[in-house]
Amino acid sequence: MQNSLDMNSISGRYASVRFNAGLSKKAFAESLGIHPVVSGDIELGKRDPSREVLVRLASVYGVDINWLLTGDPAGRTSANLPGEDGPVAYIDFIDQEASAGRGVEIEHNPDVFRLPVLRSFIGPHKPEKVRALEVHGDSMVDIGLNDRDVVFFVPGERRGDGIYVISIGTQLLVKRLQFDPSGSSVQIISENSLYEPRTLSGSDMNQLRIEGRVIGWMHRY
């Protein structure tokens, strides 16, 4: 997973900007006015972004150049400081896969990276209240949530039926939850006809922990 989104390198942070913009490699390169091969080389770590590319990243996507080059969010511009209304916010990306399938074992003390994301994408939620995870599996493809997409969720939020990050025992999953009005049971639903719904009731409800409600996701190309 770190190879797909390595926030400890310029190439990884550059790739995260494209990822958050939801653009293909070709479209992202075009938005920066450079050839796709040049952009691809930057994303692969084969070359560093030129001054012109840095300027375009700042002007088009609100990227803080200090963060891109050093990984240090402390030096970002005032337009991106917490509590300000700049276009880019920083949220915690948890280096732990959540299964959109049959379950992934929960890791102890996973790494956490600061992930830049457009503030409008997570609004009206505050950046410090939002978390992100990469999903693995195909059980939610019917709603467009695919393998290796990144989900954004609000920890602790439970607001009726919807898509949630949950844990059952030691497994972390992304599923649709449908609550019984009486509160005596919950149905765990996959958005894929290959997976049967699962109902928890009675003492089995103690296995379920709702980690947070999903507010959106971004595709990987």
Which homologous superfamily in CATH is the superfamily of the largest domain? Umud Fragment, subunit A
Mean pLDDT: 83
State the helicity in percent bands.
10-25%
CATH architecture of the largest domain: Ribbon
Beta-strand percent range = 25-35%
State the main characteristics:
221 residues, 434 Repressor (Amino-terminal Domain), 10 strands, 31% strand
Give your account of this protein's structure.
The structure is a single chain. This protein is of the alpha+beta class. The chain has two domains: 1-76, lambda repressor-like DNA-binding domains (434 Repressor (Amino-terminal Domain)); 85-221, Ribbon (Umud Fragment, subunit A). Helices cover 22% and strands 31% of the residues. It has six helices and ten strands. Strands 1, 2, 3, 4, 5, 6, 7, 8, 9 and 10 form a ten-stranded mixed beta sheet that branches. Strand 8 (185-189) and strand 9 form a beta hairpin. The longest helix has 12 residues, at 10-21. The chain is elongated, with a radius of gyration of 19 Å.
Could you write a compact summary of the structure shown?
The protein has 221 residues and is an alpha+beta fold. The protein has 6 helices and 10 strands, in the order H-H-H-H-H-E-E-E-H-E-E-E-E-E-E-E.
